[in-house]
Design brief:
529 residues, alpha+beta, Multidrug efflux transporter AcrB transmembrane fold, Alpha-Beta Plaits, four-stranded antiparallel sheet, 15 strands, disordered C terminus
Length: 529
């Protein structure tokens, strides 16, 4: 306490130096905030892996099944895989709340892989990525751990929108080139991009009507051969399963067989399809995704291990902005992925900040009953950022949504300690002490309570600091509260002295009383023997 008192008096006497040093540290923390990595939500610490297998948009379910079977062989041969489940034509069931449930499609399959542990999970992921690239080159695969927070999917996304499909496709290719030039961005792909070759059957209506055929008759005949038609149902327990009849695989995939398809006539005869129809080949997009009724092509990519999506987007964003500036009217590029979801989450928090600020100011005014004292309390709250930035940089933790919640909670803790100290100063002044002495007495009296409450909050964060999800929030609160406690006990008294222009009282001189003279009458008698 003697050391603290000397430090306190030194800070109060050199009040302007104390204030300038604190402001310099705050400015340094604002500058250092750019070096803190940003992350929306971290990956889960569970041992599962999710694997998305996407073929071309016009691929059949049979081709998807073959690719899934080949991938199952890779999983079965891996010694670190405990078990796995593969879903063809659809995504996995929602076994995990933040799961990004995939839409059912013929060209899509998903596997849930359970590994032996976290270390083995990363090793299995690296081996599977290499094996899929070698053995399934036509498949766009994404192998990733489970997500925490709202589902995002591919972490890096850019949506290209515009009225013309060809122009949108060209712009998306340029965006992909910019992403490819960025180190750490990999597995660049599109949600739809490649046109497929199709054969159109144009019926000669005059010839068909002469034979008594309609377009519907020809369509049903083609559909029955290529896709099949339901002829009956089979009961399996409580379920009814359709039985479809269609041509063999060679017949329905052979163009010559389709040209020679025999169309039944009403009189019992048949006619070849080539006699009443013309065949032409063209290209079209099997799937076109639209957003607000406008064709939208999404360029999506993954990041290398150790690189955060927000960091990658921040690095490539200037080149994307330059490309967007050259686009014609009606075309635009919008950032998606984890950056967009993070912005939505922050906007939801920022929407209630004005109401929170009004409520806090109202409570402080009722408690302190002085605008100047309220300003003193609020001036210390932002300074906790000094400890937040220092702790996150030292621990190599990102600034994400959870850490932002920790910072908001930290503001309340700092304001509480400041209110306690300023209220005690007012109590000591009301008791008749000089304002300078009142500040010193209040700081000394409130040191132990403030340190105990700060230590309790800090020790409470230690158990969750090593965790993946709560770690950034814990380090933000620990670092911010430690620095803010010191600032509350040192910086706030110096600021109080400077704000109210309080001077140190002069030391009182103690005057010794004069020794009264000894009168002859009172002098003791001297006897000489």
């Amino acid at each position: 306490m003697r050391l603290f008192k000397r430090s306190l008096l030194g800070a109060m006497r050199a009040k302007w130096i104390t204030i300038l040093v604190t402001l310099a540290l705050f400015a340094a923390s604002l500058w250092g905030l750019r070096f803190v990595p940003e992350q929306f939500f971290p990956s889960s610490d569970r041992s599962e892996l999710l694997v998305d297998l996407k073929l071309q948009d016009n691929a059949s379910v049979l081709a998807t099944r073959e690719a899934a079977a080949e991938f199952d062989k890779m999983l079965a041969a891996d010694p670190d895989v405990v078990r796995f489940s593969t879903y063809v034509r659809q995504g996995a069931i929602r076994f995990y709340l933040p799961l990004d449930v995939a839409l059912p499609n013929e060209f899509f399959a998903q596997s849930v892989v359970v590994t032996k542990g976290l270390k083995e999970r990363d090793e299995v992921r690296a081996r599977l990525e290499q094996a899929v690239a070698e053995r399934l080159p036509a498949v766009v695969a994404r192998i990733y751990p489970l997500e925490l927070g709202p589902p995002v999917g591919w972490p890096v996304k850019y949506r290209v929108s515009g009225p013309d499909l060809a122009r949108v496709h060209d712009i998306a290719l340029k965006v992909a080139e910019q992403l490819e030039a960025m180190t750490g961005i990999r597995h660049i792909n599109f949600d739809w991009a490649e046109p497929a070759r199709v054969m159109r059957v144009r019926i000669d209506q005059d010839q068909a009507r002469q034979l008594g055929l309609s377009s519907q008759d020809v369509s049903l005949a083609l559909y029955g051969v290529v896709s099949g038609s339901t002829i009956t149902q089979v009961r399996n327990n409580i379920y009814l399963i359709n039985v479809d009849m269609r041509a063999e695989h060679k017949e329905r995939t052979s163009l010559e067989s389709i040209r020679s398809l025999q169309i039944p006539l009403r009189d019992g005869n048949v006619v070849a399809l080539r006699q009443i129809a013309n065949f032409e080949y063209t290209q079209e997009y099997p799937i076109v995704w639209r957003r607000d009724r406008i064709p939208t092509l999404t360029v999506q990519a993954d990041v290398a291990p150790g690189l955060l999506p927000a960091t990658a987007v921040k690095a490539v964003q200037p080149s994307i902005d330059r490309l967007a500036a050259t686009l014609p009217s009606g075309y635009r590029i919008v950032t998606g992925g984890s950056v967009e979801e993070s912005a939505k989450a922050q906007a939801s928090v920022q929407a209630v900040l004005p109401a929170m600020a009004v409520l806090v100011l109202t409570i402080l005014m009722f408690q302190l009953q002085s605008f100047q004292r309220v300003l003193l309390v609020l001036s210390v709250a932002p300074l906790g950022l000094i400890g937040v930035v220092a702790a996150l940089l030292l621990a190599q933790k990102p600034m994400g949504f959870v850490a932002m919640l920790g910072v908001l909670a930290l503001v309340g803790m700092i304001a509480r300690n400041s209110v306690i100290l300023i209220d005690q100063i007012g109590t000591e002044i009301a008791a008749g002490h000089h304002p300078w002495d009142a500040i010193v007495i209040a700081a000394i009296h409130r040191t132990r309570p403030i340190l105990l409450t700060a230590s309790a909050a800090t020790l409470g964060m230690i158990p969750i600091a090593p965790t993946v999800f709560w770690g950034p929030m814990a380090f933000a609160i620990i670092g911010g509260l430690a620095v803010a406690t010191v600032l509350t006990l040192i910086f706030l008294p110096a600021l109080y002295v400077a704000w109210f222009r309080i001077s140190e009282p002069a030391p009182q001189k103690t005057v010794s009383e004069p020794t009264p003279p000894i009168s002859p009458l009172s002098a003791p008698a001297l006897h000489v023997s």
